Amino acid sequence: MHICCVYVVDNKIEFDGFVKRGLVPTGLSYISGALKQAGYTTEGLCYRIDQKSACDCLLDGLEKQPDVFAVSVNTVFSYGRIQELLTSIKGRFKDAKIIAGGFYARISPESIIFDKNIDAVCVGEGESTVAQCVRMIEQGIYEKTDNFWIKKPDGSILKCDRNVFVGDIDSVPMDRDIWNKYLDKTRPNQYYLIVQRGCPYRCLYCANGAISEKSEGRYLRYRNIDSVIKELEDIRIKFPYVDTVEFNADNIFSDMDYFFRLFEKLKKLNGTGKNRFKFKITGNCTVGFIEKYGDIAKYLKEANVTKVLFSMESGSGEIRAKLKRPFYRNEDIINLCRMLKKEKIQTHVSLMYCYPFETDETYRDSVRCIKLADPDFVKMTFLKALPNTEFELYLKEKNLPLITFKDAVRYIAMAVKFKIKLSRIIEYIVDLKNDFSADRVIGRNKKYRELVKKYFDRGDFKNAVKALNKLAETDSSPWIYGDLAIAKMNIKDYKGALESFAVAVSGGQKDVYLQKMEECRAKMKEEKQNENLL
Q1: Residues in contact with 477: Cβ distance below 8 Å, sequence separation at least 6, in sequence order
Q2: DSSP 399
Q3: In the prediction, which pLDDT does 439 show?
Q4: Of the residues 67, 211, 374, 465, which has the fewest C-beta atoms closer than 10 A?
C-alpha cells in the first residue's frame, strides 16, 4: 500500500518556516518513518489553505496513487478549510481512506470523526500503531487499535481502549525525505532536530495539559544523546550546506543534567569536521535559574549557541499565575536577556496578549518589561482557547465574548509598539478572525444539535427538519442526513426523506438506513395508492 502524508499549512509564516528554515512536520515525519519501517511506501504533500491551493492540480503531482491519506489537522480553522481537499481526495481516489491526525484531531476527535470524508482519527502518538491501523484497512478487518478511533463501513465508531505514549522516542525513525521536493528548492541551511517530547508544565491555555491526560505513560521524554549525535554526524554528510541546528524542545532547561551532558558532546562534535554547527534552543528562565547557573550565557557561547528563544507571555506576575505558568519574575527575564546580549547571543521572546485578563496596568507591565529586556526579536500572539483545555472551560463558565473592541485595539497597539512588521500584524488579525469564525461555527452547530434532540424528544419534527437543515449547512456528517430523513418521514415528506437517506448512505451509514429507506418507499407507495382511490 502507498500512503500520502498531507501537511496542512495555515499561512505564509508557517510555510516559510517549512521551506526556508527546514521546520518539517515532525508528527507526519514519524508516521512516515513507522510506515516505511513496516514495509509500506510513502510520500509527502503540502497543502496551503491560505492560497486555496487547486486541489486537482495538487493531486495530479502525486508520485503514485495512494491507498491512504494521513492528513494533519492542527487547528480548528485548518479543519474548516480542508473540506475541499478531503472532497477532492474522495472524488479522485474513491477507495482511498483518510486518517486525520495532529493537535486538533488529538484533543477534539469527537469534532471530526463523523465527517463523511474521514475514516479514522489518530487520538494519540500514532507512530506506534499506525502500521497496524493501515494493515487493518488493507485487509478490511476492523478492530480496536491503540491511539486510533476508526469508522467502520456501517458508520459505527471503534474507539480505542488505550492511548499510549511512545516510551522510547528513538525507536521509530523520523523520515524527512518525503519533504525533500519542497526543501531542495531552497536548500535551507537550518535543520530541525527533535531532542524532547512533551512538557513539564501544565499551562491553563496549552494543549499539553489536555494531551498529557489522554494517554498512559510518561509524557515528558528525552532522546538518547548518542542517537542525537549520530543524527548530526549523518547531517554533515547528507546536508553539507546545513550550518544551523534548531532543537525542538519546549524547554531544554527542564532537565539541566541532560542539557549539560548533551552540550558537552555537542562541543566535542563541533571540534571535529569542517563545518561547526550553530545551535538555536528554547528554554524557560524560572526563578533561581540565573543564581544557580550564573555562567550559563558564557557556557552557551562556548557551545556555539547563537539564539535563545523563551516565553515571557506576560509582564504581569498576576496574569502568569492565572495562566499557571512556571514561576519567574520580570527581573529574571531582563537579566537573562542582558547576559545573553553581552555574549552576542540573539534573544527571541514570545509575548502573548492575555485576553480576558489584560488591564491597562498589565498591558503597561508587559511593555515596560520588554523595553528593559530589549530582546532582539519579539513574537506576538493572542491567547486562544484550544478545545478541551482549562482555558476553554474558563471562558465558557464565565460566558465571556471572544474579544472586545478595546482588547483588539490594545493588541494591535502592542504589536506596533514592538515594531512587529505590518504584514505580520495583518496575518495575526486574519488568523485571529479565522479562529474565531471557526469557533463560532462549532458553537452554532452545538446549539442546533441540542435543538434537534429537543424537537425529536417532543415529536416536533417540522422544527427538527429546520434545525437539521441549518446544521447541514456547515456539517456534512451522515447522521445529520439520516435524522433529517427520519424527521421528513414523520411529516410525510417521503420524497425529501429518500433524498436525505441517499446522502446518509453515501456517507457510510449504509446498513443503518437501508431498512428505513425501504420503509419510506412503502409509505410513499401507500400514499400514492390512497390518492388514486380518492
Answers
A1: 114, 115, 116, 507
A2: T
A3: 65
A4: 374
In a 3-state reduction of DSSP, which class is residue 322? helix
For the chain, the average pLDDT equals 88
Rounded alpha-carbon distances, angstroms, from residue 395 to 43, 314, 327, 399, 405: 41, 19, 23, 6, 17
Class for domain 445-533, per CATH?
Answer: mainly alpha
**In whole angstroms, what is the distance from residue 187 CA to residue 150 CA?**
39
Query: How many CA atoms does the CB half-sphere of 121 hold within 13 Å?
Result: 26
What cell does 72 get? Answer: 494533519
CB atoms closer than 10 angstroms to residue 94: 7
Residues 382-415: tens digit of each pLDDT: 888 888 889 988 888 888 876 777 887 888 888 8
If one counts every other C-beta atom within 10 angstroms of the C-beta of residue 272, the result is: 9
| Distances from the Cα of 227 to the Cα of 18, 32, 237, angstroms | 24, 19, 16
DSSP state of 158: E
Please give the angle made by the CA atoms of 122, 6 and 426, to the nearest 5 degrees. 105
C-alpha cell at 204: 491553563
Can you tell me whether residue 334 is helix, strand or coil?
helix
53 vs 289: which has the higher pLDDT: 289
Name the residue type at position 490.
Answer: N
| Degrees, nearest 5: CA angle 506-507-513 | 75
Bridge-based pairing of strands 157-159 and 148-151 is antiparallel
Domain 189-420 has CATH 3.80.30.20: yes
Give 132-135 contacts, CB < 8 A, sequence gap 24+: 133/99, 134/1, 134/3, 134/35, 134/38, 134/40, 134/68, 135/38
Strand-pairing partners, residue 44, are 5
Mean pLDDT in residue range 307-329: 94
**Concatenated DSSP letters of 356-389:** TT--HHHHHHHHHHHHHH--SEEEEEE----TTS
Which residue(s) pair with 47 in the sheet? 8
Residue type, 301: K
Going from N- to C-terminal start, the domains of the chain cover 2-159, 189-420, 445-533
Nearest residue to 205 via CA among 435, 408, 388: 388
Which of 281, 280, 278 lies closest to 250, judged by CA? 281
Contacts of 129 (CB under 8 A, 6+ apart): 145, 146, 147, 148
Q: Any idea how long the chain is?
A: 534
Backbone angles phi, psi at 42, to 5 degrees: -140, 160
CB distance 489 to 465 below 8 Å: no
Measure the CA–CA gap between 124 and 194, rounded to whole angstroms: 18
Partners of residue 14 on adjacent β-strands = none
The DSSP element (H or E) to which 247 belongs, if any, is: strand 244-248
Q: Measure the CA–CA gap between 117 and 91, rounded to whole angstroms.
A: 10
Yes or no: say if 373 and 337 are a contact pair by the CB < 8 Å rule: yes
Block residue for cell numbers 407507495? 525
Q: Pull the grid cell for residue 138.
A: 488493507
Query: Which residues partner with 72 through β-bridges?
Result: 101
DSSP 248: E
Q: pLDDT: is 248 or 511 the higher one?
A: 248
